[in-house]
Write a structure and sequence with these properties.
Blueprint (H helix, E strand, L loop, with lengths): L5 E6 L6 E6 L3 H21 L7 H22 L3 H20 L1
Antiparallel strand pairs: 1-2
Helix pairs in contact: 1-2
Length: 100
């Protein structure tokens, strides 16, 4: 059984530092996520520069945006309906072949 290797990685969304302990194998994924978060923060800060929004407000808006994107991808990649249909067709094919 392989041992998990934990590393500490610091992410800085919205100008605040957050040290994270993550699996070493997830480092690239976490860095990419932090980069996306930083970019969204910059975009939101520019888009809503005239609005009276706190850092917390911006981060909340970004969290909602990213959650919606995640749910869209989950819905798009939901293969349960296809697996069910394939199983049904496979069962029908087995019955048909037995009758032959």
């Amino acid at each position: 059984m392989s041992e998990e290797i934990l590393i500490t990685l610091e992410v800085i969304p919205g100008g605040k530092r957050y040290p994270l302990k993550i699996n070493a194998e997830d480092e690239e994924l976490v860095r990419d996520a932090a980069g996306q978060l930083r970019q969204k923060y910059v975009n939101y800060r520019q888009t809503f520069s005239n609005a009276d929004l706190s850092e917390r407000d911006l981060m909340a808006m970004i969290a909602i945006d990213m959650a919606v994107s995640h749910l869209r991808l989950e819905k798009k990649n939901d293969t349960a309906q296809y697996v069910s249909k394939i199983q049904q067709l496979s069962d029908e094919l087995k019955v048909f072949l037995k009758e032959q």
